[in-house]
Every structure is written in structure tokens, then in C-alpha cells.
Amino acid sequence: MNTSIEKLEKNMAKITVEVSAEEFEKSVEKAFQKNKNKISIPGFRKGKVTRQVMEKMYGKDVFYADAANICIPEAWENAYNDSEEEIVSSPDIDVVQMESGKPFIFTATVALNPVAEIGEYKCVHIEKISSEVTDEDVEERINKEREDQSRMVAVDREVKDGDQAIIDFEGFLDGVAFEGGKAENHPLTIGSGAFIPGFEEQIIGHKAGDEFDVNVTFPEDYQAEHLKGKPAVFKCKLHEVKEKEVPELDADFADDAGFDSVDEYKADIRKKLEEKKASEAKDKKESAVIEKLVEGMTVEVPEAMIETDARRSIDEFSQRLMMQGMSIQQYYQYTGLNQDIMLEQTRPQAEKRIRSRLALEAVANAENIEVSEEDLTKELEEMAENYNMKVDEVRNMLSKREIEAFRKDIRIKKALEIVVDNAVED
């Protein structure tokens, strides 16, 4: 197999791949074997007709299209792996020559990784990002945990805002009950907005055992067509009133949380908040620095590169859906989206990711950052630990290009550290 490359404008390239006539003939034979049981010819049993007979009846090129589909993936993979260029898009394939006894030739138009020109990167100015944890932050978190531990308890009094009312109800339009307007022992939190406007407020002031009417008007944009804008009466019976009981912050609460005292519990809350805010501040600082780098960068990003990244993102999303038992086609059906809309929605984030990476690659180039074998081994050790494998097993499993991708990721991380460490917070 022979390959040649022609550099095009806008960081694109056309790679010509020539497969020998002998190798293409093997693909034609595979195509024949794949199709011979599907073709019926008078005078021959299915699957028993020879290739020569088929080619005589349908033409010598009858299997060429299938042969090309068999040949191209492997030939392109070999060309891709052998290429010294950094290809960053899926190939746009075009068959150039496909004739008997001649080499099979096709071209693959691809995007090449562009090299960005970077501006100032060692004194990037960003807004100061605080990771301070205040007493109010601690109190808010504790109150949240107390709320999470709360329970509803029955009370003998009138309903107030925030209570839970256990009610029966049935709705009527002009004195006639309508479908879907009835329930028994329904728990309704007053003030939740779960029911149509005006309903919950009319529960307030009633006690358990009360029977009463609630008069409301359905909104004009209500989902049920026959109820839109209609006045209705709900006949209700209140069975029980419950209020939220929030536990006190005392020794028992601290003990239930696994601490010897309230002070120890508070200290743990503060520590966790400090760790969380420090991590958030680090992420925000990195994002702010990268944004500034991108603003000062000059680069022409190929459209094919952006589309490939966007499609990869959709493929990853599709795989996550499959793990949850849903196909991408079902997702499209439920959401009213399709692949073209998803691509359009995903494109801005894809371009942002690409530009961020190109900016950091430019920093790595400017700093002449190199990746040692120790750096690579450390990265592979983390991967091996995640997959419960040995480092050598992981290394042998990866292709040359995949190993190179790991090296590039490490360079990016080192470049980011340099820029963040030297950033100025105003």
C-alpha cells in the first residue's frame, strides 16, 4: 500500500491511498463470498453459482462496491497509523480508481491539527476568585442537613402555609365531574405550587374533618384542552394536617451524624466546605485563565475538526444513554430532536474545547515541554488502577497513536499548571 499527502488550505489535507490490485482482488473475493448466497440464477442452486458466472451475467464490477466497503476501512486505518501528520477529523472518502487488474485508489480529505499563535501566557490577569468559607456558609449547610433529616408529624390545628394537607378531592365543571379531577388521601404541601393557582391557598385555615369547596379557574395555557380557562369547583375533605419537624442542632443530632460533639460536627462541615470551595475555585481559575489565553490566540480551526468533535460528543452521550437502557433514537423521539439539531447544539461546546486545547498546546510548544517515561507510566498506572489491570497489560493494549495521545494530554496538563501558577488575580 502506498500513500501520499497534499496539503490544502485552512489546515486541510488530501491523503491518497493506493491499494495493490492483488490486495483489492482479495476484497472482491470476500465480497463474492458474502453475497453468493443472496443471488438466485436460473439453473443454479443458491450459493452454488461461481463468481465467473455472476460476473458474466452482471458485469465484472458487480462486487466492486462491496469490495470497496471491505477494503477502505482497513486501508485507511493503516494509512492513518502510518501517517506522521496529526489528523483530527474523520476522513471524507472519494474513490478515484476501481478497475480490474489495476490498483484501487481512493482519497481521504481530513483536517490537520492547526498550530496556534499564542499571546502573553505567563502573566494572565483574571478576577480574584475567593475560596473563603464563612460562618454563614457553615450555618447554611448545617440547616440544609437538618432539613434533610426532617419529618412530617400530625398536628391538631388549622392548616398553615408550608404544612402538608392530606385531602380527598373531586373536580366539577358546571356540576359535572370531569376525568382526572379526583383523588383520595392525596398529600398536598401548601405553597408548593403543585396544584393550579388559587387551590392551595383555599386549604389554609381548615382543620382535619372539614369538608369544603375550592373554587378555581384553570389557566388558559393548561395542558388539558377541555379545561383551559374553565371555572371549576373542587369538593374537598381534609383528613389530616402535618407540619415539618426539623431536628435541633444538639448532641443527639451530632451523635447521629457520627460525631462526639456539636463542635466536632461543625468543624467537619467547615472542612468539607473548604475542600469543596477550594476545588471549585481551582476549576474556576483554570477556566478563567484558559478563556484569556483563547482571547489572545490566533488560529484557524477547520470545520471538519469541529464536526468530528461534536459527533464524538454525541456518540459518547449515546453510549451513556444505552447504559441507562435508552437508545439515541428513543431520545430523539421523546425530545423532538434529531441528529442535525444535536450537532448544531453541540457545535459551540466542541469549538470551545478545541480552542482551549490549541491554546494550551501553543503554551506547551513555547515552553518546550517534554513528557518523560516516568510521566507516561504514572498516567498509565492510574488507568490500570481504574480498570484493575497491570500497567504492562494497559500499555500493550494501546496503539502507538493512543500512547501518543496520552503524551499529549500530559503536555496539556503541564502547560495548564504553568499558566495557572503564573496567573495574576486582580
- Which word captures the global form? extended
Helix content: 40-55%
What is the fold-level CATH name, i.e. the topology of the largest domain? Trigger factor, domain 2
- Overall pLDDT: 93
How far the N terminus sits from the C terminus, by CA atoms, comes to: 58 Å
Query: What characterizes the major β-sheet?
Result: 5 strands, antiparallel
H/E element string? EEHHHEEEHEEEEEHHHHHHHHE
- Rg, nearest Å: 34 Å
The CATH homologous superfamily of the largest domain is called Trigger factor, C-terminal domain
Secondary structure: elements and pairs:
Blueprint lengths: L1 E6 L4 E8 L1 H15 L15 H8 L5 H19 L9 E6 L6 E8 L13 E2 L8 H14 L2 E4 L9 E10 L2 E14 L21 E7 L13 E15 L5 H6 L5 H34 L7 H21 L4 H8 L3 H28 L6 H14 L4 H7 L2 H22 L2 E2 L1
Parallel strand pairs: 5-11
Antiparallel strand pairs: 1-2, 2-4, 3-4, 6-10, 7-8, 7-10, 9-10
